[in-house]
Amino acid sequence: MKRPIDYLLAGHITQDLTPDGPKLGGTAAYSARTARAFGLRVGLVTSARAGEPLLQSPELAGIQVINRPAPQTTTFTNLYGPAGRRQILGARAARLTLDDIPAAWRSTSIVHLGPVDAETDPALAGQFPGAFVGLTPQGWLRGWEADGTVYRTAWPEAATTLPLATAVVLSPEDLQKDPRQIAEYIRITPLLVITHERYGADVYVQGEPLAHMSTRSVVEVDPTGAGDIFAATFFAWLWRHPGEILDAVRLANYIATTSVTRAGLASAPAPDEIGEALAALDLPALVDSTATPPPPRP
Question: How high is the pLDDT of residue 288?
């Protein structure tokens, strides 16, 4: 029997093929570790091949995982160069729907839909009344060639899904830097944060610009997962502190900037790093999530 959770993640864990061998990756993994560092009880609904060793990785310690068995685990190769990241999708696990989420987890406080290969049903955004629904829609904005090369594509369900979210985090690259598409997403999303890596983030509320939030300059080692870490930090903090949007972005910028100084899932924050970041930014310390009733949606 699954224990109660505070933070539900739905998305594929991935097998990332690196020069050092296969590594655990995906929004689900990076965001789950980050939410866990905030002291939240995390449940991950994913799909991978039965017996996938990556699901037993120490990086997922303390996270409850439900796996929908598939013939293969989603596999990516990430290649970085002067033109940015090139991704190759080598294999794809099963699609995730409401049927994959246990009834005991459907009353969770925070729902994070984190697709990486259009695997998560967008209709899930409307299935958790009263919850904080966070979206990182990059996986709905991806298509792939016959050889697996990933490209950006339109997302037909955006018009009906984005208005259902409490908060959405994405990058201009997710939208092919298309000013018309970016403007439309800003218009229909209640709270949208557009991240610009080392240049910070832009915040929009109900279609209007709220602020541009700059970030620190650091020596970058590996940017993989930084956006997922930003999103989970932003969602977790804003859920605890409804309405404190700019503080949530400040904290997310700080944690994500730290993350790029390390490689792989080691870039996800540890609990003591959350505390250090809060102190550095003069933000309130964390409290025990199990003793704190879910706040209202912002």
Answer: 59
Query: What are the DSSP E strand ranges found in 136-271?
Result: 142-144, 150-152, 167-170, 191-195, 201-205, 208-213
Identify the band that residue 158 occupies on the pLDDT scale cut at 50, 70 and 90: very high
The DSSP result for 105-155, as a single string, is GTT-SEEEE--SSS-B-GGGGGS-TTSEEEE-GGGGGEEE-TT-BEEE---
Domains, the chain, with CATH or none? 7-285 (3.40.1190.20)
Q: Is the dihedral of CA 282, 33, 68, 290 positive or negative?
A: negative
Q: Report the share of the chain in percent with pLDDT over 70.
A: 95
DSSP state of 199: G
Whole-angstrom CA distances from 83 to 66, 154, 214 are 37, 21, 23
For residue 88, count other CB atoms closer than 10 A to its CB. 16
Q: What is the pLDDT of residue 121?
A: 98
d(CA 183, CA 180): 5
What does pTM read for this prediction? 0.93
